[in-house]
Amino acid sequence: MFRIAHISDLHVLSRTGAEWRAMLFNKRITGYANTLLRRGRVHRRDFLIAVLQAASKEADHVVVTGDITNLALESEYDDARSLLSGVARSVEVTVVPGNHDLYLPPIFHERHFAYHFGDFLKSDLPELALDLPAGPFPSVKLRGPVAIVGVSSAVPRPPFIASGFVGDKQLDALVRMLAHPEVARRTAVILIHHPPVDGRSRIAQMRDGLVDGAAFRRALAPLARGLVLFGHVHMRVRCVLPTPAGTLDVVAASGAALDHPNASVRAGFNLYDIAGDGAIERIGARVLDASGSAFENASIAERTECI
Ligand SMILES: [Fe+2]
Ligand SMILES: [Fe+2]
To answer: For residue 153, how far is its CA from the centre of ligand 2 (angstroms)?
Structure first.
């Protein structure tokens, strides 16, 4: 049995006043306001630490589906790298970027994500990766019955736009990767930040969804089974994506530091058990209780649409 813990949307916040003051004078103002008004009050450091510690103890591999930092500040990257390195001392870690990790074009083009998280981006088939500003993607780790495939959907966007884009070249590379015999004989576990299945209007998808979601889903057509794991929506949800060859389970993890009365939003991590023959045996979650002192088992209700 191979067990994967899935965490997402850590939104590690800068805690230094100097950087916060500097933010007031640049384009990060929208993210700053966002932090203060909507997210700053509900992200708890103690919740995040508890989630990282529990996930590292309970799984064979920890995957992180983006928005690891909040405003892609250097201090946030340093802090987040140190937190994930702590997890990596006991279990292997794989990450993909979220829109918050590549907040502005300079962060993207100066390759901050790959620079800070290079240890968590390594691929067993590096010759199939593209050299993208976010790092070498798609990546893959071949571990027992699973092939853990990382896809980057994070691109810099103007203020108030949070949508993702994979791009034709990366999708072509993904198709080649899924066809590789060492990948094809395993159960694919695909990581992407933005929602791969989205029942909302096209306008909403262009605002904060996966702009080329249809092309991404077409790239998954050869898969008869597998997991597509995402974040971004800050809620634990699950739906099904039929393919010509079978069915994929599409699952979101909530924000790993969120304090919220709704248990499907509150901090926790998802767990997936994959048997030696590649069968997906269990999809569930461990969620902090309302006091934040203990984890409880939770199911993730299957819905017609993930969002
Ligand atoms: Fe997020
Ligand atoms: Fe996001």
So the answer is: 10
